[in-house]
Amino acid sequence: MTRRLVLTLALIASLATSVLAAPGVSAAALPATKVLIFIEENHSLAQMQSGMPYTASLAQKYGYATKYDAISHPSLPNYLAIASGSTFGITDDKSPAAHPLDAQTVFGQAWAGGRTAKTYAESAKKNCDTQGTALYAVRHNPWLYFTPAAERSKCLTSDVPFGQFAGDVTNGRLPNVGFVVPNLCNDAHDCSLATADAWFRQRMQAVFNGPDWKSGRLVVILTADEAGRGAATNTVLTVVIHPSQNHKVVTTPLTHYSLTRLCEDIVHAPYLNNAASAASMSAAFGLPIA
What is d(CA 9, CA 49) in angstroms, rounded to the nearest whole number? Predict the structure, then answer.
């Protein structure tokens, strides 16, 4: 083989890699090994589609679900449902001291299986922070509620303030299960959907430039905890961003338990609680998983 031919083949391989890594390219993407979840607050599918134009554009470009329902009201039961496949009968937003849960989470499952998990809590002041502030809502950080020793020890090291997020994105250190908790302004709880949309856009621009996305192995999910009290239904916008998705619109009925199940598919863990009977999100979207 001549040197020119070797160089030509190397160039072709390099170009192919660049195309597959580019944001928005539909391809037979590499199987996902990481999931990064963003949670917005208290808005319906229609409200998010109209009020978050950047997010809605990603939904159209990649994929979204039209029949994805939250589990309950108010916030906390929905966060617990995602984290552990159950609301545990909780119907309020009280603190971890009021609701200690002797159960496992998808975060703990990831660590127990030799993989990684991390929560990035915006406006939290320390790891595994159980003290709320005007911007940081403890009820939006579900890992804090789980009391087994293995859960607590990992919460203390891996439930971190949001300042760590940028470095993990830039350096390709996102965990296998990543959970992003925007503060009460940037999740559209206290501020506008436009504010939440602009915040998410900044985060996604960094993600698209990061090695985890460019590897083709990261799937990003954006959803909302609930549609808000008084909404006609509890249907929320749920966006799936991965190179395998190309204008995909999923009509399969899905719930937060389906998202629990997706996390467990990513880390190859047994299904917790209601995740076992939930519709498969990975199957509905045709997500390739390693």
Answer: 44
Domain count, the chain: 1
* Residue 170 resides in a domain: yes
CATH code for the domain in which residue 161 is found: 3.40.720.10
Q: Is residue 254 part of a domain?
A: yes
Q: What is the pLDDT of residues 40-85, one digit of tens each?
A: 999 999 999 999 999 999 999 999 999 999 999 999 999 999 999 9
Sorted by sequence, the CB contacts under 8 Å of residue 238 that are 6+ apart come out as 64, 65, 68, 221, 222, 223, 254, 259
Does a structural domain hold residue 5? Answer: no
Which structural domain, as residue segments, surrounds residue 144? 62-285
pLDDT in tens, 242-269: 999 999 999 999 999 999 999 999 999 9
Would you state the structure tokens that stand for residue 239, as one six-digit string? 């966006």
By residue count, the chain amounts to 290
Separation between Cα atoms, residue 141 and residue 157, nearest integer Å: 14
Helix axes of 193-208 and 53-61: crossing angle, nearest 10 degrees: 50
